[in-house]
Design a protein that fits this description.
Bound molecules: pseudouridine-5'-monophosphate, manganese (II) ion
Distance between the termini: 23 Å
Number of domains: 1
Structural class: alpha/beta
Number of helices: 12
CATH class: Alpha Beta
Strand content: 5-15%
CATH topology: Indigoidine synthase fold
Order of helices and strands: HEHHEEHEHEHEHEHEEHEHHH
Oligomer: single chain
Shape: globular
CATH architecture: 3-Layer(aba) Sandwich
Helix content: 40-55%
CATH superfamily: Indigoidine synthase domain
Amino acid sequence: MTQVKHYIKHYLPLLALESTVITHGLPRPQNLQLARDMERVVRENGAKPATIAVLEGKIRVGLTGAELERLASLDNVRKISRRDFAAAIVKKETGGTTVAGTLFAAHRAGIKVFATGGIGGVHEVKTFDISADLQALAETPMIVVCAGVKAILDLPATLEYLETMGVPIIGYQTDEFPAFYSRQSGLPVSARLDTPQEVVAFGKAHWELGLTSAVLVCQPPPVATALPRHAVEEAIQQARQEALQKNIHGQALTPFLLQRLNELTDGATLRTNLDLLLNNARLGAQIACAYSADLRQRTA
Ligand code: PSU
Ligand code: MN
């Protein structure tokens, strides 16, 4: 039995982590460092990390240190959303799973809690592009910890879409939807919760009704590296403009925008991105522990 299966069987705390952030979202060498740091933070907070990816055509839930290192070093790997699994399998390819892809594989493996940086969402109307993350959130009963929607996206439109799909938007210790790099967006959440136990109780109430969507837990980026909105707004506009001019679209758009923002802000957005990923890994692990404690109590 694999370690992950052992954990599931005994209701021990597991936290799923995605890998597109490693293969496409962050530059080298910060990507490998971050992947290792996230796994460490999860362990320090009492849970087992399961980073999810596709390696040579096999869906893998939980990677070894060597596998993580190899994934972080590869060029031209596939970015795997739900539509891409079969392609990677039949072509025996390797790739990083997006939020949507990770939700699919983690749920299939029996994992209940997942942490990421920022989910995908609706891009500006000029580049009609709605992330598959949103549909996956609508259909997958898991707790997903994030810092909101990546700020390169249309936040109000993304919230409208999630509302239509019935996905609860939880503000973690906040009444406001965080804006990924910034703590404020001026947009409301659908409920505020303040502890991991409250999040678990909310998820149980939601799913016991027979509702089957994810519960999106939105935690603002840490105060120390959070950026004021006006400090990133100009860079976001410029990066979007360049993407339009260069005709960058589809799966390449989000990675392009993130990389350009990092360059335009002299690394400030990258620092915030790394920080919030670790912060979300910590909260994800705490929620995984609370979920596991609740399950063990119920089944004792
Ligand atoms: N969070 C980050 N950086 C990232 C991502 C999330 O801090 O790069 C990734 C996630 O894997 C998410 C993807 O699913 O960006 C969104 O891509 P798209 O907009 O093409 O669906
Ligand atoms: Mn997209």
